[in-house]
């Protein structure tokens, strides 16, 4: 039998029938540019007899061809760009999908996916060939690239296969962390204190921030002002963190400045810290020192040793911070004081630098200054008066018996006793090539009553220059009423030096005061007498007797007189002598009067 193909679709170009009746392809159907489908053919059958006989009926064959006509098509509803964060873990971050219009359940509609480029994408990413899931490879974490172009191919199962490509851009976010402020006093806030004299070359504060990213430039930080920050005219910030003054703070009044700043990393997608503040508190020199213990006078000996403290100046400053409350001392000098005196700068101790034993000056005026550590410095200055004591010897009272017996009628301001003293000062100086003996006033004496008895001081005085002791007022009024009493007191002397010295041996002065006692008649029972009228003149009529305890003249000196009576006749006929004897007046005749009785009044008085 012989089989023959007859076709109107050109099937005979691609198929043949074997002697056994099998229809086989004789060439690839893919060569059919017309993509014929189906192929229709008629098979005739004849024998090889003679005549050849042909089968009455023909066999009609229809060959349906599953052709790979369509290429895969990517779905357009999936993104073409992706942003991922770097990770050491392999994660599916995107899935691509495609469809193929060829017959289902055939290789031509079965799609596989692959990454075919670009650059090094194939080593950084992997693609699930069946699902289209795109994952990062570990190599991506180590790489520093940021944008990757992935060329993805969808291929069907045809032979030859048909494929379609799609480009996906993947951005890897490697800058994962924003800088965070560190070393702050409170969250996101630095507080710093500076002096108003702060050096513009020294940072006010060095800012610090950290970034948790693991590599440059994402972890590299720069610092800058918030564009809206105040005081950018006074401060500047270096991108590495130091904050500096633009100029001196001296002369400005605010004590606090608040700056706002950012820390930013250098990543391609730059991240910024939270806004940070830098509070700058400026310590200003607001108070000048005050010297507490000047002006004052201080005494030193002419033999004062050098480099020994003679006085310590103290001062205070109301400022609370160094160096504004750190004080130093120096001398600014008046006259010759700076030649001989100096001041310890740290503690204010004043000391002698050169001997003053041969200098005639007795007073030096040293102006001492206390100044703080500000710039400019504030200060106070006051004068210390230094008195050189050349009065080396004390007066010595001359020992003696300074006793005097006086009457209560003693006149005032009349010398009673004179107290004496000496002073051995005789200071020799050598100055300007001449030698002078300087005594006064160191050996000039002043006498005074050293006893602390108000009544004595009321009645007695001593001449300050001569030592002469006299009464200040009548001693009669002294409260002691004894007939004889003693007023005892001490007299001392001091010299007239600027720093006077007083004698150590005051002398006792004793004034024995004698009061005047009244004379008394001692024979009152015999105060009458009878005489004849013929008694001659000069005849004793009566002899008085008087008692007087006074022993001091004139209190013990008595005077007698007749006191007039009512008629005054007694004084005409009688008289009394200095011893108290009453006589008939010489030359008088008692017969010349008819008076028979005379009242002769005798008066006795001391002087």
TrEMBL record:
Looking up InterPro entries in the UniProt record yields:
Cadherin-domain_protein (IPR050971), Cadherin-like_dom (IPR002126), Cadherin-like_sf (IPR015919)
PROSITE patterns membership? CADHERIN_2
* Matches recorded under SUPFAM superfamilies: Cadherin-like
Q: Name one GO cellular component term.
A: cell-cell junction
Q: Name where it's found.
A: Membrane
Q: Name one GO molecular function term.
A: calcium ion binding
Protein name, UniProt field? Protocadherin 4 fat
Instruction: Name the keywords, alphabetized.
Output: Calcium, Cell adhesion, Membrane, Repeat, Transmembrane, Transmembrane helix
Q: Its GO biological process terms?
A: homophilic cell adhesion via plasma membrane adhesion molecules
Q: What PANTHER family does the database record attribute to this sequence?
A: DESMOGLEIN FAMILY MEMBER, NEURAL-CADHERIN
Q: Which residues form the Cadherin domain?
A: 1-74, 90-181, 186-291, 292-397, 398-521, 523-606
- Origin species, per record, is Mytilus galloprovincialis
Q: Which SMART domains match?
A: CA (SM00112)
């Amino acid at each position: 039998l012989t089989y023959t193909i007859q076709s109107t679709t050109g099937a005979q170009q691609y198929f043949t029938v074997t002697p056994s009746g099998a229809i086989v392809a004789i060439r690839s159907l893919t060569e059919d540019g017309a993509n014929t489908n189906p192929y229709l053919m008629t098979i005739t059958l004849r024998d090889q007899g003679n005549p050849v006989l042909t089968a009455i009926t023909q066999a009609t064959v229809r060959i349906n061809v599953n052709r790979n006509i369509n290429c895969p098509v990517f779905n357009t509803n999936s993104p073409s760009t992706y942003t991922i964060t770097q990770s050491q873990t392999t994660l599916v971050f995107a899935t691509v999908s495609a469809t193929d219009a060829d017959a289902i359940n055939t290789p031509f509609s079965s799609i596989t996916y692959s990454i075919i480029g670009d650059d090094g994408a194939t080593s950084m990413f992997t693609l699930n060939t069946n699902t289209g899931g795109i994952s990062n490879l570990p190599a991506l974490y180590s790489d520093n690239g940021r944008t990757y172009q992935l060329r993805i191919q969808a291929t069907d199962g045809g032979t030859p296969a048909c494929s379609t490509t799609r480009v996906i851009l993947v951005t890897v976010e490697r800058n994962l962390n924003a800088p965070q402020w560190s070393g702050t006093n409170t969250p996101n806030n630095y507080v710093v204190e500076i002096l108003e004299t702060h050096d513009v070359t020294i940072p006010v504060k060095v800012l610090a921030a950290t970034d948790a990213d693991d590599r440059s430039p994402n972890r590299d930080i720069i610092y800058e002002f918030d564009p809206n920050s105040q005081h950018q005219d006074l401060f500047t910030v270096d991108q590495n963190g130091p904050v500096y003054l633009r100029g001196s703070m001296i002369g400005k009044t605010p004590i606090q400045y608040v700056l706002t700043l950012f820390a930013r990393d250098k990543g391609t997608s730059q991240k910024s810290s939270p806004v940070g503040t830098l509070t700058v508190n400026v310590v200003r020199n607001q108070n000048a020192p005050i010297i507490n213990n000047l002006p004052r006078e201080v005494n030193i000996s002419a033999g004062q040793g050098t480099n020994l403290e003679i006085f310590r100046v103290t001062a205070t400053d109301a400022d609370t911070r160094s160096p504004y409350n750190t004080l130093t001392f120096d001398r600014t000098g008046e006259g010759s004081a700076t030649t001989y005196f100096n001041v310890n700068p740290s503690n204010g101790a004043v000391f002698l630098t050169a001997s003053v034993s041969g200098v005639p000056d007795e007073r030096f005026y040293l102006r001492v200054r206390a100044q703080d550590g500000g710039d400019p410095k504030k200060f106070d200055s006051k004068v210390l008066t230094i008195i050189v004591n050349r009065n080396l010897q004390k007066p010595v009272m001359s020992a003696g018996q300074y006793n005097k017996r006086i009457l209560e009628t003693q006149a005032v301001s009349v010398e009673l006793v004179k107290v004496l003293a000496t002073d051995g000062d005789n200071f020799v100086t050598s100055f300007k090539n001449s030698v002078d003996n300087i005594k006064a006033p160191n050996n000039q004496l002043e006498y005074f009553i050293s006893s602390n008895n108000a009544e004595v001081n009321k009645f007695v005085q001593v001449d300050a220059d001569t030592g002469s002791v006299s009464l200040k007022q009548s001693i009669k009024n002294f409260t002691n009423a004894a007939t004889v009493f003693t007023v005892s007191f001490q007299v001392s002397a001091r010299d007239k030096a600027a720093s006077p010295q007083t004698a150590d041996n005051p002398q006792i002065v004793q004034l024995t005061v004698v009061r005047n006692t009244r004379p008394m008649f001692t024979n009152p029972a015999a105060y009458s007498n009878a005489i004849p009228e013929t008694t001659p003149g000069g005849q004793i009529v009566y002899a008085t007797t008087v008692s007087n305890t006074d022993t001091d003249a004139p209190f013990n000196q008595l005077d007698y007189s007749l006191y007039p009576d009512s008629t005054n006749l007694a004084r005409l006929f009688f008289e009394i002598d200095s011893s108290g004897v009453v006589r008939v007046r010489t030359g008088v005749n008692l017969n010349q009067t008819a008076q028979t009785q005379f009242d002769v009044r005798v008066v006795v008085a001391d002087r």
